[in-house]
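Can't paste images in this forum, so I'm doing it all in text. The chain is below; anyone willing to post the predicted structure tokens underneath?
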Amino acid sequence: MKSIKKYFYLLIVVVLLQACQDLDEINENPNYVNQTHPQLLLTQVASSAFQVQGTSPLYASRMLIQTGEENDYQYFKWGNGSYNTYNDLRQVTIMIEEAQRIGSSNYEAIGKFFRAHYFYKLSLMFGDIPYTDALGGESGSFQPRYDSQEEVFAGIITELDEAASLINEETTIDGDIIYGGDPSRWLRLINSFELKVLLTLSGKERVGEINTAAKFNEVYTRGPLISSLSENGQLVFVDQQDSRYTEFNSSSYGSSMFMSATFIDLLQELADPRLFIIAEQTPGAASEGKPINDPESYNGGDPTANYSLINETLVADGNISKVNARYYTDPTTEPHNILSYWELEFILAEAAVRGWINSDAPMHYENGIRANFEFYRNYAEPYSDFLSEDFVEQYTNQEQVVLPTGDQGLSIEYIITQKYLSSFLQGGWTQYYDYLRTGYPDFAFPSGATPPTRFVYPNDEYNNNTTNLEEAINNQFNGNDGIRELPWWLK
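Text version of the structure:
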């Protein structure tokens, strides 16, 4: 009898142990994968990072105007920005961790590039941001401290150096929708992007312990760099769900969105055929049957004027141009670039003018113009006749286009102007930051307003990270979180 009881008790223990084991297995979510190959994450991260950044920077940069309502970006009245980019950075963090888990230096390098790309965007939007302690939510750090903007930029430059050193050019990168698995082209993008970051700081002699000009020359000499359109850091769109051009089927283009006179007038002054590729003829000119390559058949509205007045005059009279319909009717119209060959050439031209590198500024400047014309020739085929090599030759030889020498300020004005003309729905906020940095091209201001230099910190940050945020605002702006406060990079 005792042996039976002993057996019975033993059976209960076994059942209980088994039940605990079963409960543990039940609590494990079979749909949650705590490990994955970074190639799957790379596809998702790249698809998000390379998307068109929308029309907000085009309003701020005097390329578009709105006639249906008062647009905050057009009238320099924007307020709070968003920290949604940190959600993208969480995916990048996981990709880097998974790359380290499987020992893949290429995925780790690309992850560091995307970290640099996103933190660069965030810091230019706000100033000081969480950087060192950011993305630590899973380890319990929900209230990260803020790093100074100088510390963030020093970290970005260091991470790009590390990314370049990690690239293994002998190992193909699976899941790569940008360069088809070619690590050598990622290396060119990483190095070229570092030059972009450094030139953004043209007003700063040093970034922490880094000499800005010397570092630029070091990276330029180190190379390799983007050297052709085939090496653009670009996403090519395809006519499939979730892979089409970002502005495809956007209803806003067809209603009350029109071209700004700032942009149109500049194209007309330079007899620039990109006018025909970017804008539509005015309805009046189209109804009269004027040829689309007639510059006078295009017109823009004053970005500082009252929107309803523009609507009652230019719009009512059919004397204002819309955005070219290809941007919202063609699902694959043109690739979107994080960094293109033409932008890099303009960066190198400016660096040469500033004496940061020993190179031929006019050569780089003309390379940039020619590359942008070629890009449109490749992707805007109905207009390719207006972009022939003969016409490009004629365009680049114009007195108002040839890069002047001997006057650094004037040379930089020419370079930034051409960079601006090449950036429609390509540059994101780059052209606006170039304007803040250089003053070119000349932007008209609304009455009583000056161009904002940053965004106000997100409301959620006021609620969830109050102490650290207030310390950052006090350190930078004496407690005033305003859109016209000067961040470190502009001081």
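The chain has two domains: 81-228+453-491, 237-452. The first strand starts at residue 64 and ends at 66.
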